[in-house]
Amino acid sequence: MANHATTLPQDNHGHGEHHITSAWVLFRTLIMLLILMGVTIGASYIQLPSIGPISGTVINNLVALAIATVKAYIVITIFMGVKHQTTLTKIWVYAGFAVLVLLFGIFGDYWTRKFEPVSGWEKNGESAFPREFAPAGKPPVPNNVNLRPRG
Question: Phi then psi for 51, rounded to 5 degrees?
């Protein structure tokens, strides 16, 4: 007689719980997003003062970015259903945000650096090939584009 107490791997297939978000939760989320949209629009009309070396424009952008981050969090957790997913799914979502923050930090550092010209990097002429050397078996090409003035 078969033992029905043992479970086989195929017995659990397709029996996972799928969470359905209620219409009331979705409606409340929509209202929250509309309120945050109004806050974003209202914040765009307010000129925040400078704080030390940080200009008011940068502070305005940081406020708008913070509000947008809250809205993105709401959309991801409720509308996309990450709130009711496994821990692994949540880890991947957090990792995506961490990579995004890291990219903004790296590019912010890159964009705020001053360009420092290095001697020897200036453009010499139209051609990047050294014309004072001839191809094998041919006479040198008379082209002084890359030759620097001597003297």
Answer: -120, 100
Concatenated DSSP letters of 6-26? S--GGGGTT--------HHHH
Cα(93)–Cα(33) distance, integer angstroms:
20
Beta bridge partners of 51: 54
Task: List the beta bridge partners of residue 54.
Answer: 51
In the block, residue with structure tokens 């010209």: 117
Alpha-carbon gap, residue 126 to 39, rounded angstroms: 54
Helix axes 56-74, 23-44, angle to 10 degrees: 170
- Can you tell me which residue has the tokens 């945050």? 36
More confident position, 49 or 148? 49
The predicted-structure confidence for 39-90, as pLDDT tens digits, reads as follows 999 999 999 898 888 888 999 999 999 999 999 999 988 888 888 888 998 8
Encoding tokens for residue 96? 């995506």
Domain ranges of the chain: 21-80, 85-114
